[in-house]
Amino acid sequence: GQSEKNQTKSDIIHIRTYPHHNDVGVAKVWEAGACLAEFFLSHPRYVRDRNVVELGAGVGFTGLVVAGVSGAKSVHMTDYTEAIMENLAYNVME
Prior knowledge:
By secondary structure, the chain is mainly alpha-helical. The chain is 39% helix and 9% strand.
């Protein structure tokens, strides 16, 4: 659509998932995380100039959105398993 034509590379977040992996943290972008990301896109004042910690970041979608558009001082994303942390690091570096 028209909005896609106006996007730049910096407007797009690429997230790597493993939908067939046994570790649910790397399987998908969770709906709750997508909703929270949309909330912060609409209301960045809640995190602007703050240090933000995302517990259970999974693939990192919410934290990456907050880091990219909110004006937060810092965003720290955490999770548990090695597979999740490796994939999260990959998504942060992309």
